[in-house]
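Hi R.,

Here's the chain you asked about this morning:
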Amino acid sequence: MQPLQLIANYYGEKMAFFYAYLLFYTSWLLIPTIPGLILFIYQCVLVAHQIRHEQPVNTDTPYNCLYSLFMAVWSTIFVELWKRREHEISHIWRMGNFEN
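And here is the predicted structure, written out as tokens:
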């Protein structure tokens, strides 16, 4: 955990909220990284196989659709959890009527 209270005391709550969002977003980006990396490696192997056998290069796979669905679900969960975290932080800092 980062010292958000110290950042809020020094720079103000607006900057601390921005910093809190960046920390939250960066940590949540680790979740789609793993399946995205696996899909990327699979597509690289697929392209190498197509080039080796002199076939036209095509990276469309059924896994692209699954990854897109995964990203849609991930982004929805991310936004809802950020709203929860934002309300938690505003409650801790007693900022009930905070406008972004």
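One quick note: The chain is about 80% helix and 0% strand.

Cheers,
M.
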